[in-house]
Amino acid sequence: MKGEILCIGTELLLGDIVNTNAQFLSRELASLGVNIYNQTVVGDNADRLMDALNIAFSRSNIVFTSGGLGPTKDDLTKETIAKFFDRKLVYDEIAYKNIEKIMKKKNMEVSESNKKQAYIPEGAIPLYNDNGTAPGVIVSSEDKTIVMLPGPPKELIPMFKSKVVPYIKNKVKNVLVSKEIKIYGIGESLAADKICNLLSGDNPTVAPYAKEDGVLLRITASGKDEGHCKNLISPVESEIKNIFKEYVYGEDDDTLEKVVVERLIDLKKTIATAESCTGGLVAATLVNYPGVSEVFMQGVVSYSNEAKMQRLGVNKETLDKFGAVSKEVAMEMAEGIAKTAGTNVGVSSTGIAGPGGGSEDKPVGLVYIGFYIDGDISYKELNLSGNRENIRHKAVLEILNELRLKLRKC
Amino acid sequence: MKGEILCIGTELLLGDIVNTNAQFLSRELASLGVNIYNQTVVGDNADRLMDALNIAFSRSNIVFTSGGLGPTKDDLTKETIAKFFDRKLVYDEIAYKNIEKIMKKKNMEVSESNKKQAYIPEGAIPLYNDNGTAPGVIVSSEDKTIVMLPGPPKELIPMFKSKVVPYIKNKVKNVLVSKEIKIYGIGESLAADKICNLLSGDNPTVAPYAKEDGVLLRITASGKDEGHCKNLISPVESEIKNIFKEYVYGEDDDTLEKVVVERLIDLKKTIATAESCTGGLVAATLVNYPGVSEVFMQGVVSYSNEAKMQRLGVNKETLDKFGAVSKEVAMEMAEGIAKTAGTNVGVSSTGIAGPGGGSEDKPVGLVYIGFYIDGDISYKELNLSGNRENIRHKAVLEILNELRLKLRKC
To answer: Which residues cross the membrane (chains A, B) (predicted)?
Structure first.
């Protein structure tokens, strides 16, 4: 089945809203085995919508539309689709009752413009809307199908899941299953080079994606059922894990903070953070993980030198001799936070996030990160690029990844 | 000028990422006076990209592409666009030097696949990339122009703003000038109601947008030059500011943290933070502002009760009697951080971000924020909705906004 997505709405063309419907539909349809080769957005304009439908059906046999089903004059999707299939719009009693029900919930009268929403193309399968007044429909001719959905995600998503998914499953023969492997510490192009033989595979396919938190490698198999797909994925997954070894930090929904916190929980080790240039972002990232309170005790954002001495016991001599941005201070910070907080693990950051504050010796992007793990103290020097936000963000990822690697050996 | 947007990337068709580039480009181009009637997404596939280019130019004279400029084999945009214009790809020395520079910063070698990124279509205007290895280009024939941009937003956005905007401004006759007014503490629809007479204006237009950090009201005027536009904007701007009064926190690029930090600098007041549920995010948000070190001294993420007592001097009795999530603890935290850090201002958060940990008395979303300003202690109770991330994020905004309002009176 060759499908495409056609979103209708002038607010999308003006950039007032981001097109989350296209993402939702694409992801859901991919997992149902419907190949989506195009997404299109047009405004609330009948001529341009008709053109878009003609283009879409020149290359696809099923089109999923969203939007343009509202009660106002500029909502033209249903009328245009009926015209495309040369069908009349006919009154649907159940759709009308649903509109009455929804309006009653809102303590509002059914207006004349709402009534127009109860009409659907003749012969179409109605998709009644539990969360709004506009019904969706599935309209088919011999070789063309349109699945017409309302624009608001809170209406579109439940309608798709409850009514469109069963319809599609009934039509599609093959299943698609994906598995994601996440790696950190190696760039997208180098990662691709290392698995170039896998990238040209057909079933399963392997594709690398550069993400904020590393590189994601997606293995996707097509087969007659889930078990069949998993059997195709399994050897490729093993091969990838074997190639990237400790660069692999997780799968699917894993994040660096999740992996680190879960490892700390397993090891029953507590942690505290001492941050300068990252300004609290390491703590805030760990706290993303809901179970973190079991292991994360406290953090100090020691932005001033005074705070480094007062809160963490960093020596004045160390600050004077090496400067706040130095491996010596990073290590004293990590040790200091662990000892004052009474935790097994302490991590620290000190660096120059820019845009000002850099020098020839210590340029913008120079960051030292420190680690204390049960008495072992170490550091890593980072030379990061990008703006202030990038530098801070990368420093956080580096701290989490280094900590992940160190905790593997515990 | 009739334009459209063509985003290239299989990850968009699979729904792996949401198409924020289409939104960004649409909004920016609308404000530059370029009419966008279509947005299209195709995968990394040369044939389908060529088809999409042909369709796009059958109805538009300028096409903005994003994506497909990476170093790997499946990045085909540049090659396909060169073919579309029947141009050779030629080596660009400056683009190559830029790739070397970017890779050196990352301590990485220039790979063979990176080298291919230094080639651009013959006769094209190069758009050198300050944030990545792929240069953009503008390629034109008699009646067709393609502006080709890299996919990652952190590369696309600065390239568009610094290099494409001047190019477009030069092509478009009428000037469009926008002014943004930012408000916090009042919802989008209520804000719209208060200025409904302005919303129907023609020149300037006024449009409200719901943003993460409040509501943005954009005033846009069209005129023969910048001065003309500014004269049209000025009275509307005054009217809006008069309607929303202290809800207005800034203009254009202002953020809540920028406004707060600049006010602290003006007042010569120092600040420290004590965070529980926000987990370091208040500190990290203040640290977004590059000049923050002048006023921000330190922060404590007192996640455990022990940390609240040890670092902030919160009384054990207060914790026992009222619980960690209480106005009493919030106020002791704010006072404690200011006194131990020796700052004028202390702010605090303690709450239940969820998903677990809620009770009937203290449900998920209950957050107390505390303030200490030169001896004055106060708190605010928040009842926030959404997931863990939403709740923490809204709590940060509330702290910054409350602090802004309190500092107005200093």
So the answer is: none
Q: Does B301 touch chain A (CB under 8 A)?
A: yes
Q: Considering CB atoms only, which of A26, A187, A310 is closest to B108? A: A187
Q: A303, B299: Cβ pair inside 8 Å?
A: yes
Terminal CA-to-CA distance of chain A, rounded, Å? 50
ipTM of the complex: 0.78
Could you please state the CATH topology (level 3) that the domain comprising A2-171 is classified under.
Molybdenum Cofactor Biosythetic Enzyme; Chain A (3.40.980)
The CATH number that domain A256-408 falls under is: 3.90.950.20
Predicted local confidence at residue A265, as pLDDT: 98
A281 near B CB under 8 A: yes
d(CA A219, CA B14) in angstroms, rounded, equals 13
Say what the pLDDT of residue B179 is.
93
* Per-residue pLDDT reduced to its tens digit, B191-247: 888 998 898 888 998 888 778 888 989 898 988 888 999 999 999 999 999 999 999
**pLDDT cut 70: percent of chain A above it:** 100
Locate tokens 């008395």: which residue?
A: B361
3-state secondary structure of A207: strand
**Given this structure, which CATH class describes domain A175-251?**
alpha beta
| Contact at CB, A293 and B273, closer than 8 angstroms | no
Give percent of chain A with pLDDT exceeding 90.
77
**Across the interface, do B280 and A298 touch by the CB < 8 Å criterion?**
no
Instruction: Please determine, for residue A40, whether its predicted confidence score (pLDDT) is greater than 90.
Output: yes
Residue A28 corresponds to which tokens in the numbers above? 């859901």
Q: Is A43 helix (H, G, I), strand (E, B) or coil?
A: coil
Q: Which residue do the tokens 């990590």 mark? A: A334
> Does A197 contact B at CB distance below 8 Å?
no
